[in-house]
Structure formats: C-alpha cells, structure tokens
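Hello Y.,

Per our agreement to keep a running log of every chain we model this quarter, I'm adding this entry. I've kept the format consistent with earlier entries: sequence first, then predicted structure.
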Amino acid sequence: MVLPNLVGHDFHERFAITDQISVNFKNAGHILGASVVEIFLKGEHQSKKIVFSGDLGRYNDPILYTPDPIKQADILFVESTYGDRSNPYEYPLEDFQRIFSKTFEKGGVVVIPAFSIGRTQNILYFLNELFKKKMIPPVNVYMDSPMAISATELYVKHHIFHKLNFAQMEESNTFLDLRKNLKIINSHQDSIALNMIEQDAIIISASGMMTGGRIMHHMYNRLPNYKDTLIIVGFQAEGTKGRQILDGADSISIFGQDVKINCTIEFTEGLSAHADQDELMKWISCIQKAPKKTFLVHGEPDRTKAFREKIEKDLGWNVEIPQYLESSILYKGI
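Predicted structure for the entry above:
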C-alpha cells in the first residue's frame, strides 16, 4: 500500500511538505539516484537547514557524476564508511586481466559478489572494456541477480543522470547489453544450473557482502574448488561472510554446513562506491561556515572516531558520534 503513494522529485527541485518544512535533493554520486537531502525548517523567528549526506560516491567514477557540493548547513549528518583512510580509485582493467587470465588458464570460473545497483553496472562496464580491447578471451558473463537486471535497465531510462550518452547505450556492444557475452539469468532453476559450469565463465551475483541471495549457492559450490576464483570488489562490513573471508577464514557456514575455502580469493577495494577520507573531507569542506553540529553516521567505530579527529584537527568543527538510541535536541524555539 505504500508504493502507490510515493511521489518522485528531481534533483534541485525544492518542494514543500508543510508550510514550515521543505526538502531539496542533490546528487550524492553513490548509486544511480542516490541523494543528499537538504531539509529547510522555517520558524516564526528564524530558519535552519539540516543536511543528510546519505552515502557519498567517488570523484572519478567512470559512470556517475561527482557528488553535488553543499555550501551551507546548520546541522550536518555525514557518512563515515571510509572515514579513516585514503582509498584511491583504481582503474581495474589490468588487475582484472591478471585475475581472469590466471583463472581461465587453470580451467576455473570467476565469481563476483556484487550489489545489484551500482557495483554490478560498473563491473559490466569494465568487462566490456576488457572484451573490446581483447584483454581477456570472449567467455560468457552470467548476470544472476533479478534486481541487478531491473536496475541495469534503469540506466537506459534515466540516462541524463550519468555520464554515458544515449548513443553509447544504443550500441550493440554497450556495457548495458554485451549481447555476444552477457547471459541474463532470471529463474532460480537457471541459477542453480550455473553450478554445472566447470570453466571459462564469469558469474556476477548478489548480495555484495554475501549475506544472502543467489550468491550463497554459488559460494557453496565454488569456494571448495581450487580452480575457481572469488573476487571481492568492495567494503565488507563486520559480521558478514565477506568480512570473514577477507579476514582469512579457512571455512564459513553456508546453509548450516561448514564450507572449506580452497578457491583463490582476490580483493579490489578501490572499486568501492563510497567516498574515502580525502573525498569526504573535500565534500564537507565546501560548506563555507562550520555547522552548529556535525554528526558522523554509517561507519564502524574506529573509522568514525578517526574521521571525527580529522575534521576537528583540519576544520575545527563541533563533531559528535551518536550512540544507539541517543537523542539530541537540534533546535530550540525555531
């Protein structure tokens, strides 16, 4: 009953919710349609603005535009996923070429857990580049995620919100199509059938942190295989199976069974869709006057703490890290 009542608004289209509250969306650059949210509060004697960064994207993504700058905020909520580190964006063609070539030479399959929106489309973009430049053989690519299939179609429908022009998307070899190589997997039965493929294939499936979805049965079948390769292409949160694998686990529990990890594990953190510390600082530094309060959210404790120290040292702002169920009074008598 909720979906029929949703109303869409474009970026930079300020709209009123009440006489006292209005909202404006700006591009966050994280995934297609991700937004920074500006909330304008109008009181009897003064007006204030609250800004929610949401997830912020990279400044050199090959598909999406950079996050829109914010010049003023009275209260700021900003993410801190990579608040403790620089995470340079790495153009992965050579690294992918090495991984794919090595796997195919030993007769294996490459499995890539990827989020359905954003990460999958970026991987398809790079695979298309690899095929066009003949850097890898023309193997089949299986996109095994119903949500990713639907999300990829949105890149055509909403082409004004990314860098690729419509003409590029109409080409027969566009990353959104890959007609000669890309195989779309819709049914669960066809997804299970991919387990029978023994070599020379790339499987992209969700979820990206391996917490559920079709990727689970691919991992169940591929992790024990010495010939196969699992590529982890982004941040893995604490408590996820992806994090366990990155931390060097010898085995993980899948479907209630202990699954041995014998396959090759590769990690390319540079493909993360989250801004790193340098990019986060670049974005908040556009704010011309220090907010009354800055709240750091969406980050692991050590990373959030490091980001607070960085902001306080470089900008001298009042920074808080909210605790679970903590309340804070933002304004009085507005």
